[in-house]
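Changelog note: in this version the structure field was regenerated for every chain. One regenerated record is shown below for reference.
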Amino acid sequence: MASSPSAPRGPEEPIWSTSPAAAARRLSVDPEAGLSTQDARERLGTHGLNRLREVKPPSAWRILFDQFASVIVALLAVAAVVAYAFGEWLDGTAILTVLALNSLIGFVTEHRAVRSMEALRSLGSVRARVRRDGREVEVPATQLVPGDVLLLDAGDVVTADARLCAASNLEVDESALTGESLPVRKSVEPTAADAPLAERTSMLFKGTAVTRGTAESVVTGTGMDTELGRIARLVQEAEKEVTPLEKRLASLGRWLVWAAVGIAAVTALVGIAAGKPAFLMIETAIALAVAAIPEGLPIVATMALARGMWRMARKHALLNRLSAVETLGATTVIFTDKTGTLTENRMDVRVIALADSLVQLGADGGRGFRENGDVDPRSNPALRAAVEVAVLCNNATLATDLRRGIGDPMEVALLRLGVAAGLARETLLEASPEVRQEAFDAARLMMATVHRAPGGPGYRIAVKGAAEAVIAASTSVLDAMGQRAALGPADRERWMQRGHELASDGLRVLAVARRDAPAGDAEPYEDLTLLGLLGLADPPRPEVRGAIAACRAAGIRVVMVTGDHAGTAVAIARAVGLVEGECPRVVVGADLERAAGEAEPADFSSVPIFARVTPEQKLALIAAFQRMGHVVAMTGDGVNDAPALRKADIGVAMGRRGTQVAREAADMVLTDDAFASIVAAVAQGRIIFDNIRKFVFYLLSCNVSEVLVVSLAALIGAPLPLLPLQILFLNLVTDVFPALALSFGEGDPGILRHPPRDPREPILTRRAWLAIGGFGLVISASVLVALHLARSWLGYSGPRAVTVSFLTLAAAQLWHVFDARAKGAGLLRNDVTRNPWVLCAIVLCALLLLASVYLPGLGEVLSTEAPGPAGWALVAVMSLVPLVLGQAWMVVGSIRAKRARTSPARGDYALRGTDGA
């Protein structure tokens, strides 16, 4: 790959110390036209894709090697060595075979999980706005090449190193690259040739973020030939993300290892003391230790998380962080924006309020100009002035079909308005070229563009912004004849009232104003002439009402937090069912500021709508709700939302209209910007955690039953009901496949009819542990009774009697999978019986059990004999006893729960599907 043009090459002057024109000449590009498509294609072939060299995921060989670096493998290896030491060649070889099979299953599942995660990451793509062939287009950021003219706004992530050509109020967050915590002010002016990286203010660097202003720049370096790429070369491997859930599972696994080794040692000593062969008891103890350790936990957990993320992706929710999966299910409050989340983000100008009239437009935001001649902008100076400012004070670009565009949907709607009025932006700019721009300021709630005055000396400043901000900055108003009239306090109050009336109709209100100035650097927000108010309609999404109702049923509060007008917020909230009644409680940002200064903080926990809220106030709201114990999800789309997205327990960014900064700060990105997708993701988060609890409960119950059946037999002096290789076979067959099937479950359809779980709650509660012990004890008792009946009633002895106990335990464990159904679910129709993977796992395991008895060679290794019809009948009856007792217990528990569920407390959902009750 070619060296970066941004780096000094020999005696050539560094590009940051040259003028913008010289930089463009060096890169052979005209900034006004950009590269041609053919030129860009050729440069892409020379420089390659604009992406960093990614750390390769673990190879198949590495994954296979990792399967042998575990306690389980060590114990099996010791067992094989002991077998060979005692001359048991068949047993030693069989143990090694089990080891290989166990490692193969782990390899296949982990390999699939890794590949799934790789494919999921590839779903998200970043796009860049560039100028090519003389027009603005969006291209994948990976297609950027040196010489591309890169256009940036506040909220964009810089996707390549670039030399500034034009900038307006440009500030860039370079903390990811330089460690500088404050945004850096950028300028087109050259900097010193020996300036350090942090002081090259004429340059933009890949991986940084535009926090304020706008910029035009020429790309100087891409991919690994950027400053970020140089740092990336120093990073050899990335740390693997370990979620809190995985940490808890690892901790549980370590605790079980020591418990299993202790139980196995005691069992061996007791058996030897009772006169059983030392080799048999040592081998049995090792097999017990292997059986007691749920080695499938991390494998199945990874598969469950990866599969759950795929499900969320299909429901338009991409997760940036694996840890978000488990937090989603515990969400108690969703702070949602209004525009584009609760509404369709399909804006059209419906009303223009002028000094002496109110212009009503068609549903397409402009057809009214053509249908009603008395509102023709060409014959109405005030209307023409308002539309001109709306079109000029604009950063969007309109597509040829006029319905789509690049940029903020509101600004696209203003451009459509201009086209309908016969005032296209290109035509206006020919008469009044733009000389500079004041980017939107979140504090002032306004933006401005400065243009040369048409047909004469001087400049004209076009301003748009929030109604209260523009009205406050205006000293005059334009009347119907195009003359300026003084704007006094009473007039301002009247205009404010007109804005409230428009907002109460659900319209987003925008004010436009202008100012004539002698100099281009004049203060843009002083002595303005108010031109009018524009009311933009953004219809609510039809699916939101149902999604909000689902949240209520799930115990999740939905709170609207918007920077828009309170009246607009209330109108939309009513339309989507967020509030009901005449006068819902609404708190505006100013009220939050006043409450923060009071000695006794006000309680806003029941407020459904917060309007005119600043980014700082969003942070305070999130912190306040988190102090109350809530798990907060927060939606956002702008660069100013990034701090709140990071602060929230689940930050949710908009994939379509959201800025790159917001998307990178968030835990989850919605590819359709729909609120309903958040609700679907919460449901999936609950299902994933529920599935994890199910298979943990199932695995531990099976392992406990295996340990108890051998330990109890040793303690009471009974014959061993299982042989070592049979234990290993059961651990391989009845643990992994049904557990994997449970992790693939689609979940309880009524999962959103329960309150959220407490995020501090362990994977298994005390009640769940009691259930595990109870099921393990009942299964063990059934096996021991089956062994006793086989010996005393059927007259079986030796391998044939042990085969009955072996098959009874295996079958009981298979039926036990149905005990993992959700609490309150139907006996025959539930989340487990509807899971096709469970039925497949049972059929597969049943075939393997039949093979263990009737397949020549395998039966000899496992020391099994065909039990005969009577033996199979005994196995069937005794293996079903734990299932019948367990289901009866669950039915009784459900009846009791229904009687006691007069007012469910938060956290009642915690035991669903994990304790068998």
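Spot check on this record: The longest helix spans residues 675-716. The domain at 303-312+689-911 is CATH 1.20.1110.10 (Calcium-transporting ATPase, transmembrane domain).
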